[in-house]
Amino acid sequence: METDLPLSIIELVKQVEALEDYEVAADALLALSRRDPATCARLALRILAAGLGDVYLRASAFAMLYGCVRDVAFDYIHRHARDCEPYVFAAMLDQVVDDVGILQESVALQRAVRYLKPIVALRAHEDAPGLARIVADFYRYYGDQDAAAG
After folding, report:
1. pTM of the model as a whole
2. In Å, what is the CA distance from 69 to each residue of 82, 115, 149?
């Protein structure tokens, strides 16, 4: 009888690095985000930097990066929000919108929101699933709010 034992971290890393099935790779990244956030962040950055997988995997990689190491994700936003793929841009905004509850205590989030506001205005028309809803949420939470106010 076969048992469903959890995969080891090494096996999860292999699934991500193999990129044979992008859904499996995304699921492995998610599992790593819970079990070994530093490894997940390293792999997510590699996927983003090298443009590995498809746009869905890269968007998922950004979400995992944000969940594991926000400061690195904020740095990625500052370096790539203007020119990343629409799916990755949507993932950036989605993560920032989800964190609205910590805006007052997070200087890094305040900085990211201030940085993103003019970029959102330029990129809001791009084609990515859910982008219009995410942009609307971004403006609802941050549009009239001075992110630097504390």
Report:
1. 0.89
2. 21, 19, 24
